[in-house]
Amino acid sequence: MDNNHFPEAGQLIQSGKPVHFEGPLSTVPLLQKCFTPSDGFVEDSGALYDNMSIKQYLSFFAGLSGSKQQLDSAVEQMHLADILKKKISKCSDGEKVRLRIAREISKGAEDFFLVNPIAFADEESKKIILGWMETFYEKNGRLATLSVSHRDTCICPGGHYEILEEGIRCIDQPEVTDENPDLPVISKISVSYNEKTFLFNPEEIDYVEANDGKVYVYVRQEQYLGSYKMSELEEKLTKFGFFRCHRSYIVNMQKVTELVKWTRNSYSLRLIGYGKTDVPLSKGKIQELRGMYEF
User: Fold this and answer.
1) What percentage of the chain reaches a pLDDT higher than 90?
2) Are residues 42 and 151 in the same domain?
3) How far is CA 20 from CA 40, 160, 163, 241, in A?
4) β-bridge partners, 199
5) Quick check: is 84 in a domain?
6) Helices (H), the chain
7) pLDDT above 90 (res 211)
């Protein structure tokens, strides 16, 4: 994205709902232009005065900005009351992100721009941050995030967009396809890896991901480049128990072990053998899934 697409990003951020961008960190300066110096900027790295406790750190910044009345609200919104005495050096990566957000709240910010806000393994912190993001549906404030991870972008509640060299693309828009009822019925899916072609039975496939204009097929935790469009794979795989859980994902429901509800607008699925790797589940797909599996 260059300066020519800056107005488009600004319009999206002004839309009145949380906006989440997937893109390289090099776009941070351009997106920051959509905000003022008094708005909250939450970086994804940098020093945090490790020798301070959480309370000391927040009190310091609240004092600098003259907004000490915001301190209690910041602690409450980020659920930090039980760890106020904890040294920052002892905090998990997720707790540090919550601390950075609380710092900006305590400074009196109402509009926020976050970089890689859930790029960590701490589930409690992830749920707290996603829940806080969802409050912006009712707030007047603006919220925008930038994640380098396609998966993280899709899990955040709000609108989802991909930053490309030629501009900004909405991730949530339905895929444009050509109807072709004469596609042959197949029992193998062809994929490639290191210039070699492999054929997998559908039941061997764990899930499929569309990202950056390419389709990736995952088999036993290994990533392969797919040979079909997502719409074609959805048509071919549905009869084998696969479910289009998101515009960018098709999942083998036989491999799903857990449905994770982060907030009322943010869900994900977890699969056998993938630990805590989350496959996004669109809010609009949850009712369809409930009807299929009666939960």
Assistant:
1) 71
2) yes
3) 16, 5, 10, 31
4) 190
5) yes
6) 6-13, 28-32, 54-65, 71-77, 93-106, 123-134, 150-155, 230-237, 283-293
7) yes
Domain range spanning residue 20? 3-170
Q: What is the distance between the alpha carbons of residues 276 and 78, in angstroms, rounded to a whole number?
A: 22
How much is the pTM? 0.81
Domain end, chosen from 143, 170, 197, is at 170
Phi/psi at 207 (5° precision): -160, 170
Distances (CA, A) of 272 to 44, 275, 277: 30, 7, 10
- What is the rounded CA–CA span in Å between residue 19 and residue 253? 29
Q: 8 is written with which tokens? A: 């488009």
Residue 201 neighbours by CB under 8 Å, 6+ apart? 187, 188, 189
pLDDT of 143 strictly over 70: yes
CB-CB neighbours of 111 under 10 Å:
20
Q: What distance in Å separates the CA atoms of residue 205 and residue 217, rounded to the nearest whole number?
A: 7
pLDDT tens track for 9-22: 889 998 778 999 99
Dihedral over Cα of 235, 241, 246, 249: its sign: negative
CA angle 94, 44, 17 (to 5 degrees): 85
Asked whether residue 193 carries a pLDDT value surpassing 90, the answer given is no
In a domain? residue 184: no
Q: Of the candidates 109, 135, 170, which is a domain's last residue?
A: 170
Does a structural domain hold residue 179? no
In a domain, 180, yes or no: no
Same domain, 115 and 194: no
